[in-house]
Design a protein that fits this description.
mainly alpha, Ferritin, binds hydroxy diiron-OXO moiety
């Protein structure tokens, strides 16, 4: 039987992963409507990934004798001031998610739930990868500086990064 405190934290995480999925979907839509096909593609794929994270937790909670609760989600933002602002928001969001996963790890240790602790390691590693991939994009954006004239090339680049990533999965 799943420890009640661990279950509570996992249910909160379901909501966070669901919000992440919607946030990236909103970002995909903004990018697509601004002609940024590569970035839109990256965001759509990211949104799908977040949904799989959410489902992974839903199924785990239910399999361990708990009940996964699906709650209402906050509305994600509609507009972003620039591509740089967009990815800074993604990075900030992923850092918040990493902290949230670490917090669940901490509760698992306090409650001596070593099964969930071990299961969570997948998420710990996933967060390292997600932060690294967004940070790589932010580095490219820094190289571009304030000029937007190379945005087309960056967009192509991001499209290639994503395709490469899915080939390696
Ligand atoms: Fe679910 O990893 Fe991002 O948020």
């Amino acid at each position: 039987m799943l420890n009640k405190n661990v279950e509570k934290k996992l249910i909160e995480q379901i909501e966070k992963e669901g919000y992440s999925s919607n946030l990236y979907l909103a970002m995909a839509s903004w990018s697509e409507s601004n002609g940024l096909e590569g970035i839109a593609n990256w965001m759509y794929a990211q949104s799908d990934e977040e949904r799989t994270h959410m489902l992974k937790i839903v199924k785990y909670v239910n399999e361990r004798g708990g009940q996964a609760i699906i709650s209402a989600l906050d509305e994600p933002p509609v507009d972003f001031s620039s591509v740089k602002a967009l990815f800074e928001k993604v990075y900030e969001h992923e850092q918040m998610i990493s902290a949230s996963i670490n917090d669940i790890v901490d509760v698992c240790l306090k409650e001596k739930d070593f099964t969930t602790h071990s299961w969570l390691q997948w998420f710990v590693n996933e967060q390292i990868e997600e932060e690294a991939s967004v940070s790589a994009i932010l580095d490219k954006l820094k190289l571009l500086g304030d000029q937007n004239n190379n945005l087309y090339l960056l967009d192509r680049d991001i499209l290639a990064m994503r395709n490469q990533g899915s080939e390696n999965q």
